[in-house]
Specification:
The complex is a heterodimer of chains A (about 250) and B (about 425). By secondary structure, chain A is an alpha/beta fold. Chain A is built from seven helices and 14 strands. In chain A, α1 packs across α6.
């Protein structure tokens, strides 16, 4: 049987500062290499909320504050409820850095102003002010999906998870959500939020395959075993980071 | 009293050069500023006839500086410039120590300083420039500089405090740069004619610097540079004072910007068109910027490629030059930026099909190999040791073919050392 998936890329023009589009490239290629047809839908400013309906995987990256403000304005109530529905229905998604913060209840910026979030993830983020240092550097973390997950974080805001939200990973090296409680990211149903750039998927392809599997399962209502790919280059790139941090 | 810092500075500079300690170019300045925070101000105050030109921007500082220096020198002026990369306060102070006599006299007409993006506001506290040249702002080393908007805001603030007589030479095609000239009198704009096309992925500034609305582009040269306008608030690209020149000493659209910038700066200082043309005829590129090095009887051309915009421009230009054999070297040291995520913003997908051999090396060789694999170049060969990569690059290509190397900053310094046997910094 031939499979096909629709990948929805939320705000590629605005939320795409840190090389995060690599995640889209990886999702697309890993499908293509297995004969799964993909279509990437760019959901830019003023996109029609109805487009979300038949999307199988969602992705949104990080950006600068000004860009996030534009996105916040564009997220009308019907877009929020459409996205919420997707997340609740179990549509797999990956939300990085600014997007991850945005999915929470609120973001308190460096000046102490509270900006409402989408309220989809039970979390909030606070920026402790410009005199506090940004959390920058290579990260190693352990999650259920990847034993040694690597990435690069660069964020001013500190994120705190609510009681009902599970962290995505445990920080081994680096700061993670807030530099205090050793948590990194969050996972809710099939949606993953994370601070990791790098981008996250190329060096942690297990996460990409998990998103693809979940998407196929949800669309075709059955378990579909993914063909194994040669990930030796990913492994070598990962090892270089592990070696660097532990030395 | 600036005699002692000068003497000590010159001594440190001599010692570090003598023992080949490498970082000799910024230490003397560092010590001088530690000793007297007003060191730069004081030494310049003794040389009121010296005209200072500051150049800032993400890409093109070194080449533009060298172009301006070449033109001014051909016009009979005495010019000095800070060493490329020594572009923080300590680098500027070191250059002043190096070039002055022991009483702080500078026997020159012009000083050209290329300035790091973050350092521009600090420099403007210490220096009264005649001309400030602002080239462009692209995403670059986000772990060090932060986001593009943060830098342009800092610049706007710093520029609002400078002497109104200062001449600004600004890029009309870069919205954030052009916006800095709004409400300013002594400003001239350069541009490069683009063509009608869709804005590419690695673009940073496609939003109105005034009202934040998405910009419209009539034409694009590359990245977010082009003929822009805002439908909402009416802000639009200022009319360029220079958008064409008779001859180009270097290939690539980015070098057309550098050349236009230098020509406009020189004209602002009174240089004639003929003199500029003659000066640029035998212009030699700055080290690592399209520089051709002879190594083991082979021609190797180095294209410094340090961020998505500069990498895309390098790829486009070497494709125009019909390059076949390519070595990419990716490092992640402090001068390169420690985060290599940016390679995923480079448009490898559309720029790799003409290369016969692709080799990769550097501290993050496997990140680059992985990136190329996802751009359908699974055949790119990784090398842990960069000298092995260079030898294989030579062996893999026919004798008369030029070999191309695209390195990040620290990789470029290493490569030059290998290829020329000399250290530059």
């Amino acid at each position: 049987m031939k499979y096909d998936l629709k990948i929805g890329w939320l705000y590629p023009d605005l939320m795409s500062t840190y090389g995060d589009r690599g995640n889209i490239i990886v999702l697309k290629k890993r499908c293509e290499w297995r004969g799964i047809k993909t279509e990437v839908l760019n959901l830019n400013e003023e996109f029609d909320a109805k487009l979300l309906n038949d999307i199988n995987i969602l992705f949104m990256g990080g950006a600068q504050d000004t860009q996030q403000e534009i996105v916040a304005k564009d997220f009308t109530l019907n877009k929020i409820s459409a996205l919420k529905k997707k997340v609740e229905d179990g549509t797999p998604g990956l939300y990085i850095c600014g997007a991850y913060q945005f999915l929470g209840r609120y973001y308190k910026n460096a000046d102490g102003v509270k900006i409402k979030g989408l309220g989809i993830f039970d979390l909030h983020t606070e920026h402790p002010g410009d005199t506090n240092k940004r959390l920058i550097g290579n990260v190693i973390a352990r999650s259920d999906l990847v034993n040694e997950m690597v990435g690069f974080e660069n964020h001013g805001g500190r994120t705190f998870l609510g009681k009902n939200l599970k962290p995505f990973a445990k920080v081994i090296k680096g700061f993670g959500n807030n530099g205090e409680d050793k948590t990194e990211g969050a996972i809710y149903k099939n949606s993953i939020g994370s601070y990791l750039h790098g981008p996250i998927l190329p060096k942690n392809p297990e996460i990409a395959d998990w998103l693809i599997s979940k998407a196929l399962e949800q669309k075709y209502k059955k378990k579909i075993k993914l063909e194994k790919l040669d990930d030796s280059l990913s492994q070598k790139a990962k090892e270089a980071i592990l070696l660097r941090i532990s030395s | 009293m600036i005699f002692f810092p000068l003497l000590i500075g010159k001594l440190i500079s001599f010692i570090s050069r003598f023992f080949n300690l490498g970082s000799g170019s910024t230490w003397p300045g560092h010590m001088a500023i530690e000793n007297d925070p007003n060191f730069i101000k004081k030494i310049l105050r003794r040389n009121l006839n010296l005209k200072v030109i500051l150049i800032a921007g993400t890409n093109g500082k070194t080449t533009t500086g060298k172009l301006i220096q070449t033109i001014l020198e051909k016009n009979g002026s005495k010019v000095f410039q800070n060493e490329a990369g020594a572009n923080l306060l300590n680098g500027v102070a070191s250059t002043l120590i190096e070039e002055s006599n022991l009483t702080g006299g500078l026997d020159y007409d012009f000083a050209i300083f290329e300035i790091d993006e973050n350092t521009l506001p600090l420099i403007l506290d210490n220096v009264y420039p005649n001309i400030i040249v602002l080239l462009n702002l692209f995403r670059d080393q986000l772990d060090r500089y932060g986001e593009v908007n943060i830098i342009s805001d800092k610049w706007k603030k710093a520029l609002s405090l400078i002497d109104k007589k200062t001449n600004l030479i600004l890029n009309a095609d870069d919205p954030k740069i052009a916006y800095l000239g709004l409400d300013t009198k002594n400003v001239k704009y350069f541009s490069v004619r683009g063509k009608e096309q869709v804005i590419g992925h690695a673009s940073d500034s496609a939003y109105c610097p005034k009202c934040g609305n998405k910009l419209d582009y009539k034409s694009i040269t590359f990245s977010h540079l082009g003929d822009w306008s805002c439908k909402k608030c009416g802000l639009k690209r200022p009319k360029p004072d220079l958008e064409n020149f008779e001859s180009y000493a270097l290939p690539g659209a980015y070098n057309r910007y550098n050349i236009h910038t230098a020509v406009l700066t020189a004209k602002t200082l009174g240089a004639s068109n003929e003199k500029i043309l003659i000066a640029l005829k035998d212009f030699k590129p700055a080290f690592g910027r399209q520089e051709i090095v002879e190594y083991k009887g082979r021609k190797i051309q180095i294209f410094l490629s340090k961020n998505p915009a500069s990498f895309n421009q390098s790829l486009e230009t070497i494709n125009e030059l019909k390059a076949k054999h390519l070595l990419l070297v990716l490092n992640d040291r402090i001068p390169d930026g420690r985060d290599v995520s940016w390679i995923w913003d480079v448009d490898f997908e559309n720029n790799l099909k003409n290369f016969k051999n692709i080799l990769v090396s550097g501290d993050r060789v496997y990140d680059m190999a992985l990136r190329l694999k996802y751009a359908d170049r699974n055949d790119a060969k990784p090398y842990d040791v960069v000298t092995d990569a260079v030898e294989d690059l030579i062996d893999s290509a026919p004798k008369n073919d030029i070999l191309y190397i695209l390195p990040t900053y620290s990789a470029m310094l290493d490569l030059r050392k290998i290829l020329t046997g000399k250290k530059i910094l």
